[in-house]
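Tutorial, part two.
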Amino acid sequence: MITGTILVYWQMQYIQNVNVGYDKENIVNVSMISNDFESFKKEIMQHNGVLGVTLSNQHPLFVGNSSDGFEWEGMSPSGKDILFHVLSVGTDYTATMKSPLALGHDFTGNITADTTSVLLNEEAVRVMKLKDPIGTKIKAGGTYEVVGVVKDFNFKTVHQKIEPLVMFRDTKFPYGGYMLIRIKPNAAREMVPVLEKAWKEFNPGQQFEYEFLDQEFENAYRTEQRTSVIFRYFSSLAIIISCLGLFGLASFTLEQKAKEFGVHKVFGASFFQLFSKASGNFVVLVFAAFAISVPVSWYFMNSWLSGFAYRIDIGVGVFLLSGAIAIVIALLTVSYQSYKAATHNPTETLRSE
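Running the prediction step on this input gives:
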């Protein structure tokens, strides 16, 4: 339980701090209702607290749309079976999300040029086996030209590996899309009323709803957070029960050996020797439990971590740490009884002899 608690905590810390390929901080996610996006964008960009505005037809934390049947120059016969995730975005999507480009350039803002252009992520370039992707023609219900390659970023949870992604520039966003607004750091209290006022001008009578992307990211891992809490509670309960059992065992064992300790003390055994003798047997038991727990905890925790595409490694350190904690807890538990055995007046225990 101690080992599991440590590993779950480390994994949750790793998830929360993993580099997802974009900056999820200070992004306000607002539902797209009005079709007059450009006017809305122009109005709120006049405020110096707004750093960028873009559109997406899917939630940036979960791009679910996918398609096969793409064709490109030099494609192998197996290429038709490759499943590509498809994302339609507005101008400045990569700039607003701070998703850096590896090659080429972003959409230019020229509608005529952008609607025949696409961006690929690095994983798409790998599976397509493109040595020089810029300028490659792709057929997908039309002919498109690759103008840029975006560095890989997570568009699903970290339970899944990054998959091939094709990004299109779309000007016909339906209701239910997403407006992503990057604001200045620490400006949320000031900017939310500004965004709400502007949004209601273009969507009269509608309820303004928003989320911060970093909070949505944390909510996506609520199950893991609950698992972490459950582990902590169960570990605490297991430790308390173990300590009660160990305390009772120490009391019973040392009481039986009271005369033996009295004889040792009469013959000059020091306090440290007696204390070590009283505690040593229990430390041996903890080491035995440790030897049993290592393969068991490794098996179960490795099975749990295998559900994450991005995970921590189970090293020797976690077992040494949990073993040390177990020994300290055991020593603290039996120390009182060991101290009593080591300091007890031997004349009282040997009087009947």
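The longest strand covers residues 143-150. In part three we will examine how such features are distributed along the chain.
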